[in-house]
Amino acid sequence: MEAIEYKAEVSYPKRVLDQAGKFAWSRRPYRRMDLAISVLLAASCIFPTSIGQETRGWQAVLVSAILVGLFWCLRWYQYRKTLAKMRQRFAAFPDRKLRFVFTRDSIAISSKYFEGTFEMTTPWKAFAEVWMSPEFLLLLTVEKHYVLLPTSQLDEECRKFIMTRIGEERAANPNFKLRT
User: Measuring CA to CA, which of 4, 35, 41, 64 is 20 to 30 A from 111?
Assistant: First the structure.
């Protein structure tokens, strides 16, 4: 049987990295917990006034607003740090281009690096989760490494092949997750 192989060269402009970071941040597993923590912080400050303890209502509201504001400032900082980390990883590649070779068994990634070349091969079975967006695919491994593929830079045959392989892996692995 002839080995099927698709090649693609992908670049990562700042816009693509920012979109991927925002997409990943908005779909992180614990995002609902942020809202719950905000409600609990507010309730913990306002609760003493509702049971008749000697505090002024406006003080409880002020403390509550400050705590919730600090919490969301921390989340904003973490979000910005995530974006910066993603940009920094791709800035290590001088031409900001990665070369992909997709086969039935694996994805091979290579690029010029400052000290030489970067090469990595990841089998399809290593991917545990795929996050899909109209602009890109984010393939996550069990070890929480990821492969970012801007779909607009892939030809139609390559996109079909990747989606077919994702479907096959989903069928073979019941723990495989697909998020949109």
Answer: 4
79: alpha, beta or left? (left if phi > 0; alpha if psi -120 to 50) = alpha
Scanning the structure block, which residue is given the tokens 């900082």?
77
What's the predicted TM-score (pTM) here?
Answer: 0.69
Three-state SS letters, 159-177 = HHHHHHHHHHHHHHCCCCE
Rounded (10°) angle between helices 57-91 and 14-26: 140
CATH of span 5-20+92-179? 2.30.29
Low-confidence stretches of the chain (pLDDT < 70) are 1-2, 27-32, 35, 45-58, 60, 92-95, 113-116
Task: Return the amino acid letter for 17.
Answer: L
Distances (CA, A) of 172 to 10, 163, 167: 28, 14, 9
Tell me which residue of 163, 149, 165, 169 sits closest to 8, measured CA to CA: 149
Nearest to 58 by CA among 46, 41, 44: 46
